[in-house]
Amino acid sequence: MIETEQKPIYVRKANLAKMLGVSPRTVDNWIAKRMIPVIATSPRLHLFDVEAVKGALEQGFEIAVSGG
User: Fold this and answer.
1) What tens digit of pLDDT does each residue of 16-60 get?
2) What pLDDT does 33 receive?
3) Secondary structure string (H, E, C) spanning 21-57
4) How far is it, in rounded angstroms, from Cα 66 to Cα 8?
5) C-alpha distances in angstroms, 53 versus 1, 3, 66?
6) Coil, strand, or helix at residue 12?
7) Residue 51 in contact with residue 8, Cβ under 8 Å?
8) Where does residue 61 rank: exposed (0-12), middle (13-18), buried (19+ CB within 10 A)?
9) For the purposes of burial, counting CB atoms within 10 Å of the CB of 30, is it exposed (0-12), middle (13-18) or buried (19 or more)?
10) Which of 27, 30, 42, 57 has CB atoms 3.0–4.6 Å from 35's, for a disulfide?
């Protein structure tokens, strides 16, 4: 079986917020803090690769567990 590379799915801010269960303002905050990747196609239109955003958030919110 041959695996094919999955193309990224790009969504707008409102759709991303709905998919992640957060407010659009939270997405704005993440953009301002440069926590998530964004494609600014114009000043009013920002597109997001859903899988890239999820990956960035998982890396940013990882909690280090120390042995004790």
Assistant:
1) 999 999 999 999 999 999 999 999 999 889 999 999 999 999 988
2) 92
3) CCCHHHHHHHHHCCCCCCEEEECCEEEEEHHHHHHHH
4) 35
5) 29, 23, 27
6) strand
7) yes
8) exposed
9) buried
10) 30
Within 13 Å, how many C-alpha atoms sit on residue 64's CB side?
Answer: 1
Largest CA distance in the chain: 50
pTM for this entry? 0.77
Count of all residues that appear for the chain in the document? 68
Q: Which residues contact 3 (CB under 8 A, 6 or more apart)?
A: none
Q: What domains can you pick out in the chain, each with its CATH number? A: 10-60 (1.10.10.10)
